[in-house]
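Q: How would the structure tokens look for this protein?
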Amino acid sequence: MGDNQGGGRRSPRFLRRDETPMPDLPLPDLAGLWALLWPAVTIALLRIGDVSLNVFRVVFVVQERRMLAALVAGAEASVWLAAAGIVFADMTPVRIAGFILGVATGTAIGVTVAGKLRLGMTTVRIYADATHVGLDGRPLDLGQQIAQEIHASGHGATVFRGTGLNGPVDMVLSTVRRRNAENVVAIARDVDPGTFAAIDNSLHPAPALVGTTAGRV
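A: Here is the predicted structure in token form.
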């Protein structure tokens, strides 16, 4: 007690005879952990790549783009073989988990990217009320007006007369590239804000649109 008050220094702590020293905690073996995980990470990345390529291959096959489909299929097979070779060399649970995770992630990425690129064709279905009349009492013929505006924008459109829940309707069909579908809907709603529109998915290009810019039907 006197030593602590005088010099401000504490006396060293001595172990009692019945007291055991604290063992040193072992440092994690980072090299061993990486050696265990790197094959799984590599497998996951390879599978993400080949499954994403698979999505595009299917799109190109449906669109009958034979050369692109063949090139993508070759790349897909090469990446798959690389991933499968690592798995089959030593089928540990960690590598199998990487394989499964890569398939799931690659599917999600492939579908997302294909959706962003808006590959393929789609059919826009526009329904306009055919009972509207102008100030002079004559029918406005909104379906024909919408079709004319779509034609003016460089796309094809066909008008059909039908009967809906509330009476006669004009159905305008326009098959365009997916990236242009929203523009066609906007054109229709500029003519008639109350127009109902639906967009169908179709990856196969219509014969009348292949190799053309206007593609009028």
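The chain has two domains: 31-117, 121-202.

Helices lie at 2-7, 30-62, 66-89, 93-117, 142-152, 181-191.

Upvote if useful.
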